[in-house]
Amino acid sequence: MVITVTNFPSMSFILSKHVLLFWILSLLSSRLWAAMEFQVSQQLLDHHPVVLNGTWLFHWNALLPPDSVADPAIQWQTVTVPGIWNDVVSDKDPMNHGVATYATQLNFEGALTEPVVVRLIRISEAFHFYLVSEDGQNIIDLFEGGEVSADPRHNVIAPDYLSFALPPVQGRYWLVLQVSKFNFYKGGLRTAVTIDLRQRYNRNRILVVLLHGIAIGALLYMALNHLQIYLNRRQNTSSLLIAVACLFVAFRCFVGFGYLEQMFPWVRNAIAIWRFRLELTTIAIPASIWLHFYLYLFRQVYPQRLLRYSWMGSIVLTLSIFLTPADWLAYLILPAEEVWLVLNMLVILYVLVRATTQRLTGARLSLAIFFLLVVGAVNDLLLSLAPGYGFYVMEYILLVYAVLLFLLVHSQLLARQFANSVSNEIRLLDDNRKLVRQREQAELAAIIDHLTGVLNRKGLEQRLERAWNRCIDDHEVISVLLIDADHFKKLNDQYGHLIGDQALMHLAKVISMTKLRIHDFIGRWGGEEFMVVVPGADIHIAAGIAETIRASIEHSEFGESDLDIRLTVSIGVAGTRPGMHKTSLKQLIQLADEALYAAKSGGRNRVEAYLPTTTEPPLESFEQSS
Ligand SMILES: Nc1nc2c(ncn2[C@@H]2O[C@H](COP(=O)(O)OP(=O)(O)OP(=O)(O)O)[C@@H](O)[C@H]2O)c(=O)[nH]1
Known about the structure:
The protein folds into 3 domains: about 10-25 and about 205-425; about 35-190, Galactose-binding domain-like (Jelly Rolls, Sandwich), CATH 2.60.120; about 455-625, 2-Layer Sandwich (Alpha-Beta Plaits), CATH 3.30.70.270. It has helices at about 10-30, 40-45, 200-230, 235-255, 260-265, 265-270, 270-295, 305-325, 325-355, 365-385, 395-445, 455-475, 490-495, 495-515, 540-555, 585-600, 620-625; strands at about 40, 50, 55-60, 75-80, 95-110, 115-120, 125-135, 140-145, 160-165, 170-180, 195, 480-485, 520-525, 530-535, 570-575, 605-610. The strands form 3 sheets. Strands 1, 3, 4, 5, 7, 8 and 10 form a 7-stranded mixed beta sheet that branches. The protein is α+β, with helices and mostly antiparallel strands. It binds guanosine-5'-triphosphate. Guanosine-5'-triphosphate binds near residues 451, 497, 528 and 604. It catalyses: 2 GTP = 3',3'-c-di-GMP + 2 diphosphate. GO terms for molecular function: diguanylate cyclase activity.
């Protein structure tokens, strides 16, 4: 098995720093520095953009001419921008399709020497901007875009960053915005209109695009790595899910940051509703994916049944996203998704609290990030459901970056777990190999004679039986040599048992060194008796081998220093006849024993070889007969 462990945890850690930096920069760049009184001065703009997030005059259902802001006869309502901008629903049009005029007063302190831009984020459908002097006399046409359509489905969504230059005016002016809107995004126009120096805006824009690129790149990178982990170990479905979730979030960022529309302008009109549906799925499905992450990380405390229900719910919701008529999406599916998200989050909270109380690895960190997710989601929910809720500073951006952070941290945790499980596996394999080696050694020790190092009686019998059976199957001859030391008792008595032991070791060594073939083997048959088995050798060859052994022993040097000990052996040889295998192994050994006895009786230090008689006894296996 090939296991590839990529080094991406450290890499994604580096990337996560970029994401954090991006997050902080995004927060600081425009949102926290909102100018409350809409004072527009060079000095102010030098330090931060002016964010027009205060109270606007507002007239619903009428595209009032720009100079009407100076007309005291016209009754204006007020609206907090952008908190509930889109939540104002016309009496006549429950689908929130209509026109409106908004106005807010700006105080330009001193002429602006540098060109500025007004930045708008996601205004639908058609819009027209003017600057109108306080007395209504000087009307400066600023910018118009989009188009009004009778068909509410023809939803034109302006690009996220729409910028146009402000003329170098001075004194009090009204910024008047006429807007015609149909919006699937209930509460979608939540982000402020900002005024910024054009130069800095362009510079920031490059930085923002770069940081967006890093964020999306990090997500794709994580997706690929987790896909790789999944392909290495297919049972690790959490990696696959993280990869899918990363792709989802990358897609959502790509679309949410406005790149899809910027790169493919035709998409804006052609798939506006499909874009919305797709965006909705990026909420529905990840809800269950989040649950799945925690299943993998905190398996010990996870109520697995709930995961099944969660997946079922997400699938039903996803189907509804594509089956629900466009007009009802914002009113039916969006709240349903938000409720669904909250339900899933409650389950996650339950798991995380249990994991934290049980001090599982990564639980506290997960809980902290989860807290961010909750704040982001609750904030989102309040923005769309609670009229008047205007804490938009954290809106959207918090949730997106909490999700990014979540993915980064969890992919780290998961990668660490994966690496641990791989090293555990490697350790287990090692342990297993050691055990196998130990078992083999133990098995070997069980069949080796510890004194002489040759096979003991048990090992000899096992190999002998295998060799015997093979020879019978292959119709081959086989011979055995029983080798017995002569007058060994005398040797023991005269020189002691230690010398006797050394003599046995010497005998085993000399016999082993005799030219035996690969299939031949030697073992200690008992006491001072050895056996050599020569499969495939007939009685004549075996007798020759026996003679060589005998002579080698007789002429071998044994005895330390001044001890002049001459060792001799008597050898009994017995072998099967070619083509006659009905001799049992037991009988063959008995025959060798008889031959040995004959060698002893015949004067010792000699070889006797016996062939079985022609009146063969029935074939029996060694085990049966012994
Ligand atoms: N030192 C030592 N002696 C052993 C060992 N195993 C058996 N013996 C001795 O070997 C001797 C065998 O003696 P016997 O069976 O009478 O045969 P022998 O003295 O060799 O006489 P023959 O075989 O007739 O030539 C006994 O004294 C055993 O104690 C062993 O492992 N070490």
